[in-house]
Amino acid sequence: MTEKLIVILICYMFVTACSSVYQQQDCEKKGNNECQNGAGGYVLIEPKIDEDYVRKYNIPSLELYKNQLSIIKTSNWQKDDLTRQERDEALLECGSSDIWMSKNYALMKTLTPDEYNGKLLLIKRCMLNDGFTFLGDFSPCESNPIPACDLPVPKRETERRLNSEYCIKKAYVDACQPQSRERILNTEKCKLYPKLYFCDI
Predict the structure, then answer these.
(1) What is the 3-state secondary structure (H, E, C) of 57-100?
(2) At a CB cut-off of 8 Å and minimum separation 6, what does 92 contact?
(3) Cα–Cα distance for residue pair 16/98, rounded to 1 Å
(4) I need a labelling partner for 143 at 20 to 30 A (CA). Which of 2, 70, 99, 191 fits?
(5) In Å, what is the CA distance from 55 to each residue of 7, 49, 50, 60, 114?
(6) CB within 8 A of 175, min separation 6: which ones?
(7) d(CA 107, CA 116)
(8) 99-122 pLDDT, tens per residue?
(9) Would you state the pLDDT for residue 41?
(10) pLDDT digits (tens, 9 = 90+) for 150-194
(11) Residues 152, 154, 155, 160: is their CA dihedral positive or negative?
C-alpha cells in the first residue's frame, strides 16, 4: 500500500469516527428519547411509555401522560402542508400553553383526572374545528364521557397564543411571534445571554 493511500485511509477513518460521535451527541440532545446506532448512523427512537417510564421520571399518571402526549405531540396533527411551527402555533392558539408550562407535572397533580382530560379535550376539539386531522388516540366522549364533553367547542385565538405563559416566557421563539422587543428582552434567556442574536437587536 502506497504512502498516499495510507494517508487517505487514515483521514477517512478519522472523519467517520468524528461523524459518528457528532450524530450520537446530536441525537442525545433531543430529550428523553433514546438513540440507536443503525446503518444510517444514530437515529432518534421514542422510548416505551410504561409504568417503568413514569416511575423513572416521577410522572403522576401513566394514563394521563399518554393522553397528554397524544394531544400535544405536533406530529399527531395534520393539515395540508403546514410546518411544525405552524402546528405549534395552532396548538398554542387552542390552549396548549398550560400543559407545556406545567413543570414537574404540577397540573397533572393538582387537577382531577376529569379536569385534566377536559383541558386536553378542549384543545383537541379546537384543533379539529380548525380543520386539523387528529392521528392520536384520545376520545373520552366516546368511551367514558367527562364534564368537558358538554362544553362549547373553543376557537383558535391569536391573542391566546401571544399572551400565553409559554409565549411570555419564551417570547423569542418563532411560534410566539410577533412580540414586542421589550417582552423579548425581558425573558430569562435574554437576561442571562444578552448577546444572543434574538436579544441583541
Answers:
(1) CCCCCHHHHHHHHHHHCHHHEECCCCCHHHHHHHHHHCCCHHHH
(2) 160, 161, 164, 166, 167, 175, 176
(3) 44
(4) 99
(5) 51, 10, 9, 8, 22
(6) 85, 88, 89, 92, 161, 167
(7) 8
(8) 999 988 999 999 999 999 999 999
(9) 58
(10) 999 999 999 999 999 999 999 999 999 999 999 999 999 999 999
(11) positive
Point out the least confidently predicted range of 10-19, 83-92, 169-178, 184-193: 10-19
Would you state the cell numbers that stand for residue 126, as one nine-digit string? 379546537
DSSP string, 104-120: GGHHHHHS-HHHHHHHH
Is the link from the previous residue into 60 a cis peptide, with omega within 30 of 0?
Answer: no
How far apart are alpha carbons 73 and 76 in whole angstroms? 6
| pTM as predicted | 0.77
Burial (Cβ within 10 Å: 0-12, 13-18, ≥19) of residue 149: middle
Q: Are 139 and 111 in contact (CB under 8 A)?
A: no
- Cα 135 from Cα 78, distance rounded (Å): 8
Cα distance between residue 162 and residue 32, in whole Å: 28
C-beta separation of 66 from 116 below 8 A: no
C-alpha cell at 68: 397528554
Give the closest residue to 172 by CA, choosing from 150, 194, 144: 194
